[in-house]
Amino acid sequence: MAFIPVKSLMTTLELQFLHPQPRVILTNKMQIMSLHEKLGHLLVFLEECEKKENICEEMEGVTKKIREVSAKAEDYIEAELLEDRLTDTALQRLVEGVEELMIQITRNTNHLVNNSNPPSRGVGGSSQGTSMVGHSEELEKVMSQLLRDGCRPRQVIAMVGMGGVGKTTFAKTIYEDSIIKSRFDLLAWTTISHEYNKRQALLDLCRCIMPMEGGDLQLQLHRILSGKRYLIIVDNIWETEAWDDIQMCFPDNNNRSRILLTTRDRRIALHATSPGEYCHEMRFLNSSEGWDLFNQKFFDKEFLKNEFETIGRNIVKKCDGLPLAIVVLAGLLSNIKESIDEWEVVEATIINNLDEQVSTIFSLSYNNLPSHLKGCLLYLGVFHKDCDIPIKKLIRLWIAEGFVGTMSPSKRLEEVGRDYLQDLIDRSLIMVQRRRFDGKIKTCKMHDTLHELCTSKAKIDENLLYLETKGSSDRFRRFIGLGDRRWLSLKVAIPAFHLVINSGKCRSILCFNLAVNCDREWYLLANSLKKLRVLDLSKINFALGMPPDITDLVFLRYLAIASSNVLNCIPLRKNWNLQTLVVAEDDNGACRLPPGIWDLPQLRVHNGSVFQNPKC
Q: What is the dihedral of CA 173, 176, 181, 182, to 10 degrees?
């Protein structure tokens, strides 16, 4: 994807040269502004290229050249800034070289236009969450079984079906029902995912029903559930061994407690449910239900008439009643212009094969995204499947990566980022998971099928992402070469986590701690991490101090760490670009910030709160 390096170069120009308090003051600022404008035109060009189904070899070569030149230009600028040797003359030569390349591209392709106005938003998608359609009889049957008083022993009910058929939506409808809430003393939810992690499952359940404490989570959960009538949702379980393990935490109080699980594997459902208890197969939607679900994404119901209705119904029919396919396509079509031709292209692209259908639909939706949303969507791949993603953190990561425009005077960056998030929600590519007390979105999530496709595209197609889930307890045993990949996502699963990295291109490192206790030595060796923009080590307690290779980070924009003690290892006074600083509280409840922290001109977020820098 050429968009990422182009947008990254634009953000570097904005932060280093075009900011109100620039790092480098140029004598010819207009030349940088002209380059920035031309890069904006390139984004429009790339966006139109990716919408085309078949790109000729010449155009593929052009986009590859744009990617290479943009990346090389940014690398050169940052390398010179690191050595404090960037001169006006050298920068102007670089600008002239890039502009000459753009002139050649424009002359050879005749596709670049000077008007870089973003494409208009089509007929408008609904900002409301998609509610469950159909399954009324099944819902009534399951509700009846959950609430019936005659069966006192703990009972397990299973919902079985392929990915995207609506199992989680069905379970969530039950979980949020007012009658259900009134009849059970405690309700809790956990999503197991393909890689079973008992600690995470216990944390999810405990957070639903009690304040977090230290100690044995399984013992605490078992104790709080004892004597209570509870409903537990175990979503997306993949292995019988995982069920056998987690169900030991749920006591049988002989008081009509219930467990509702969802799975793709009927064998797991039959294994978990006792004889005589329900094991429900989630059916596909019929044509009427599919059309009703499709309609939910459109504000203007009158629009879906005549030719558009005919094409729309044909598209829904090709989805074979699979809800995920229907809502993603509806999200796509609600955001493209009112064009019969474009709707017909979508109709012709959909194939009657469920195994390939969702992948095809995801590609259609992705290619139709505005360029600024493509990077935002792919970046979700750094988060692990089935995890709740805090939107404040996500938006600030987007800002740090340069996906959120920094030149708009009318809106704060966080507001623009929320608009981007809502756009992806409207397109049914992201789901709202939790809301705050005031109704605003707190966390979001990707459907696991879409997450797999997103991760695959970021890893394989775009060569952006590297997922590391192993690590080593030996300092030099686990070696990974990132090549040109920009994002490294670490799943820390052992207390002493050691990794050797070979990369000069890495821009983001995010750690997700799944170890029971990770406060022992943590070792990271890398030949160069000086160009990092994002470093999230908030889940790691460094017993022996910060690894030496990740302390001199002058381009860092987002830093999250577990303790302010670690700040003593990082010369923050050099971090001119630092925008977000997240530090967990120290033992005494205070967060001690180093001297000079307020001298950083772009620091705007600390401990999750947006504040006014007194120096600004």
A: -80
Residue 496: strand, helix, or coil = coil
Helix axis angle, 323-333 to 287-295, nearest 10°: 40
Distance CA 489, CA 512 (A): 8
Phi and psi at residue 437, in whole multiples of 5°?
Answer: -60, -25
* 585 vs 582: CA distance, rounded Å: 10
Residue 109 near residue 62 (C-beta atoms within 8 A): yes
198-209 vs 217-225: helix crossing angle, rounded to 10: 40
CA-CA-CA-CA torsion sign (156, 161, 162, 165): negative
Q: Is the dihedral of CA 255, 256, 261, 267 positive or negative?
A: positive
Cβ neighbours around 386 below 10 Å, total = 21
Which residue ranges make up each domain of the chain?
1-119, 136-281, 287-368, 463-610
Q: Quote the pTM value.
A: 0.72
Report the distance separating Cα 176 and Cα 362, nearest Å.
Answer: 29
Q: Give the model confidence (pLDDT) of 217-241 as tens digits.
A: 888 888 889 889 999 999 988 888 9
pLDDT tens readout for residues 117-167: 433 334 444 444 556 788 888 888 888 888 877 677 888 989 888 888 889
As a residue count, the chain comes to 616
* Distance (Å, whole) CA 512 – CA 536: 9
Q: Residue 160 to residues 189, 236, 387: CA-CA distances in angstroms? A: 17, 10, 21
The H or E element spanning position 4 is helix 3-13
Neighbours of 254 (CB within 10 A): 9
Calculate helix-pair angle for 29-51, 88-109, nearest 10 degrees. Answer: 30
Rounded Cα–Cα distance for residues 316 and 298 (Å): 14
The Cα–Cα gap between 330 and 427 comes to: 7
Q: Enumerate residues 6+ apart whose C-beta is below 8 A from 150.
A: none
- 302 contacts: CB under 8 Å, gap ≥ 6: none
Q: Are 606 and 584 in contact (CB under 8 A)?
A: no
> What is the identity of the amino acid at 194?
H
| Domain at 136-281: CATH code | 3.40.50.300
